[in-house]
What we know:
Elements: H1 5-14, H2 20-29, H3 36-43, H4 51-66
Amino acid sequence: MTDDPRQSARNLLQLDTVTIERLWIRYWAEGGSADLLELDAYVHEALRPPAFELTLLGWATERLHGG
């Protein structure tokens, strides 16, 4: 995985490892506050998320990548 959780998330999505919905559920479980469309925009860099939301996205991608 990369240091940027957005790139890591895009990699998982492009490889069909996870769906955006599954990523969003994991992100919410970590404490994320963005809705599905906002998260999709964060992942594809259409919106700039607050720093802590990127941390939560990173935790979510690590958990999904790891198992």
